[in-house]
Specification:
alpha/beta, 2 domains, five-stranded mixed sheet
Amino acid sequence: MQDPTKKVILSDMETKPKIHDNIVKYFLSDRENAISVIRAMLPPQVQELLELESIRYEKDSFIPKHLKEYYSDLLTSVPIKDQNADAKVYFLLEHKSTYKETTPLQFLRYMVEFWDQFIRNSDGVFVKLPVVIPILIAHPEYGWRAKKLSDLINIPSEDFRIYFPDFDFLLFDAVKDDPENYEFDEAVKALFTIWKYAHTKEFLPAVKRVFELIRQIDPQVRLQEYLQLILKYLELTREEEEYAEIKKIAETEIKEGEEYMGTIAEMFRREGREETEQRLIQEKPQWIEHGKLEATQENLIDIATEQYGPLPSKLYEKIKSIQSLENLRALTRKAIKTESLDEFTELVNRAAEI
């Protein structure tokens, strides 16, 4: 089950990208789910070399503090068979709900930082660096346009190719790929099915398959856990006019007992309650404004990170402290014209004082 340190709660006040990040992080913090994803995506010849059942979640020791907000959803390690206990392969499990062209560069930056931290943790004794395999789970609306690092570089001729690094990453595109073709755990397959059909006319019929999959989860306590999470996720990411139909499908498919019917009724408590609807109408503008503010802050951080690398934690917090959409948008326009991190920092400090 989940590592308790990885517990994730979905909040009504989060923006949709954050909700997507949180739910996939929760799902993959479950050992069974993480193993099923790695096993389903790795070539058989690589799988055979690993003790996947001994997967371990790495924590602060290998994740530089200044990178936590930028790159890693989860970092896991898996022992290599027939080698000493320290021989491991690391898997960087990353999620994107929107397309980011510079993702290969992001992976490279993370791996270099990780290896640097690995050397520091070796107490000055140099050991060979471990393999780090990035796994990207993506569901942008129109699918992922796969890119290698070399696609981001202006190469005058093939003669230059030997002078820069290039690598592949494992990709599951939940929009273009069919989860039914992979041996994912039922909980993972249910989430990926939602993503595959989220922007299509087949969404509601696909919900039936989602609950069929959830019904197969074992044991019962795990079934209830994921049923609650999926229902909450649907409540937060789908339009209210769909609630009645989703509720009807859930009640038809989940037949294990009254406790689940109670869960379904609770998760869709908005239906038929006029006072709740009125509260939602009144609060919606505040939620939208909050969402816009957070999205604009993140956009500014992304732009600055692409220009200058991971931002210092104090600068990150300073950007997060700016509560004026107008100031944030002005900063975003100016950020692309700055020539140094110091110049950008000065602009942020000025905006934060206004």
